[in-house]
Amino acid sequence: MNPAPRGLGLADPERENAVLLAIIEAATSGPGVEPLAAAVARVITEATATDVCFVHVLDDTEPSLTLAGATPPFDAQVGTVRLPLGTGVTGWVASHREPVVIPADKQDDPRYVAIPGLRGEQYTSMVSVPMESEPAGLVGVLNVHTVARREFDDRDVRVLRTIGRLVAGAVHQARMHRRLAAREEAHGRFAEQMVAAQEAERQRLARDIHDGISQRLVTLSFHLDAVRTFLDRSEGQAARTDLTTACDLVLTTLDEARAAIGALRPPVLDDLGLAGALAALARGLPDVHVVLDLDDRRLPEHVEVALYRIAQETLQNVLKHAGAEEVEVRLDVADDAAHLVLADDGVGFDPATRSRGYGLASVRERAELVGGTVRVISRPGTGTTVTVTVPLDSQPNTQPNSEESAENT
């Protein structure tokens, strides 16, 4: 009768180091927990001539383990096998943080629980070790199985525990990366929802002013004109003077109401889109030559509103402070980002001091709300260029590009 093979076949220190290096390489291959677990399982079975390896990872929200990686054909079970802590050999190892070696007759071990999808009855010997490290703590359990009886010794357990510590650190980093990505995504959604809510409220207020105050003022103006026409045909110079003053006040108030509506929600965005709105904004600058290069593809509403408001504030600052003769407004839209460039040939300023009332803090705040960034290039006497970049998260645009984007200046 042939003796049972001994150990993992890692008696050679050089071979042991090669396995650990392979595990380190697998552990640094990427931030995903499942790809990491699959790579580790494959490296372990190939390096140790074992038959199957399972990587069970501790769940984030409840005291249980989920199969995160396995060698074929059990990779199809990844994500479907879950074990409460304390259940089965794997659950016992997680609860006690101690390794378990079963050379044979695992069904006789009171801790063993058969999992149909993993076909444990086909494997004779197994080693189960906790995956834990500092500061990660317990991350999961690593199991190795063989069909033929295998005598695993203390050295084998030590090597597997070392592998477990390496994997634990990598899994911990992958989880932190995943949580950070989820938090950033949630922050992005919150910012988008906040901008949308603000604009919805502005739109509601603008509609209320338009449908209520503005309409009443228009009606009042008609009545005052009718009365003034009647008085023109008869006596009443004092009354005519008062009515003329009242009509002037109505027209002034109506202009103010329309200005308030535009400030709350720019109707030009709905009518012309961002490109048309930017063109109208720039051409409204008095005594300034305007150069336009605008991509007319539509963007998500919250991005269009943010870019319009940024352009509105920046161009107003140009009018107040720059003394510019020419202003360039360029909008470039790519698959992954929108770029708004506002450049003038005015007096310039020192961005480090945020001087001359340019309102850079407000511009940056609006950009950050939609995940964007702002770059300001200026110095006294050389003009100012403000570049705003907003990521689009690969969202498709709904209209074709009508003209080529200009080269960067």
Automatic annotation (TrEMBL):
Boundaries of every Histidine kinase domain copy: 307-394
Keyword set includes Iron-sulfur: yes
Domain of life: Bacteria
EC number: 2.7.13.3
UniProt-listed Gene3D superfamilies: 1.20.5.1930, 3.30.450.40, Histidine kinase-like ATPase, C-terminal domain
Region of interest (Disordered), ranges: 390-409
Keyword Zinc-finger: no
Gene Ontology molecular functions: kinase activity
Main location: cytoplasm
Compositional bias (Polar residues): 392-403
Top EC group: transferase
Keyword terms, alphabetized: 4Fe-4S, ATP-binding, Cytoplasm, Iron, Iron-sulfur, Kinase, Metal-binding, Nucleotide-binding, Phosphoprotein, Transferase, Two-component regulatory system
Subcellular location: Cytoplasm
One Pfam assignment: HATPase_c
Signal peptide as annotated in the record: none
Function: Member of the two-component regulatory system NreB/NreC involved in the control of dissimilatory nitrate/nitrite reduction in response to oxygen. NreB functions as a direct oxygen sensor histidine kinase which is autophosphorylated, in the absence of oxygen, probably at the conserved histidine residue, and transfers its phosphate group probably to a conserved aspartate residue of NreC. NreB/NreC activates the expression of the nitrate (narGHJI) and nitrite (nir) reductase operons, as well as the putative nitrate transporter gene narT.
PANTHER family: NITRATE/NITRITE SENSOR PROTEIN NARX-RELATED, NITRATE_NITRITE SENSOR PROTEIN NARQ
Protein name: Oxygen sensor histidine kinase NreB
